[in-house]
Structures are given as structure tokens and as C-alpha cells.
Amino acid sequence: MARTPVRSTSGPGVSGSAGFSIFRFFGEVFSELRKVSWPTRQEATRLTLMVIALSATIGLFLGLVDMLFARVLAIFSGT
């Protein structure tokens, strides 16, 4: 006979004996946010500019590939 897994009585989505407390939830959220290593303003600005530049480069590349495919298909279809 197969064993059935033992269910945990704690963890995400499981209410304990006290039930859900909005105050405890936000207290835990704020305590986790205090542990985060936040980037400096200079790092955040540099990384944001990198993301914008990379997105624009990929967008330009995909646009050129799309134009190439459109022209190739136009040649093959005779229009």
C-alpha cells in the first residue's frame, strides 16, 4: 500500500491555529524588506539605462529581421 504524504500545518497558504493576521503579515513583509540589499541610486540608474539600451537594440534588430522577412515573402508571393 502506498504511503500518503504528511501535510504540513505551517507554511504559505496554511492558516495556523491563530488564523490569518493582516498585522502579522505586514510585520513580516517589512522585516523581510529590511534584509534586502538595495542598490545605490547610481547603480539603479546605470542598470536602468542598460535595460533601456538593450531593449532598444533588440527591438531594432527584430524590426530589421521583420522587414527582411516581409520583403522576402513579398518577392516569393510576387507582389
Structural description of this entry:
There is one protein chain. This protein has 79 residues and is mainly alpha-helical. It has a domain at 39-79. 65% of the residues lie in helices and 0% in strands. The chain contains 2 helices and no strands. The longest helix has 37 residues, at 41-77. It is elongated and about 75 Å long.
Draw up the topology in text.
Layout: H1 22-35, H2 41-77
Using brief descriptors, characterize the structure shown.
79 residues; mainly alpha; 2 helices
Summarize the structure.
It is built from 2 helices and no strands. With 79 residues, it is an all-alpha fold.
Helix percentage? 55-70%
Low-confidence stretches: none
Content of β-strand = under 5%
Order of helices and strands: HH
Q: Look at the helices and sheets and give the structural class.
A: mainly alpha
The largest sheet is: none
Summed up, the helix count is 2
Q: How many E-type strands?
A: 0
Radius of gyration (CA) equals 27 Å
Instruction: Give the overall shape, derived from the CA principal axes.
Output: elongated
Mean pLDDT, to the nearest integer, reads 86
Distance separating the two termini: 69 Å
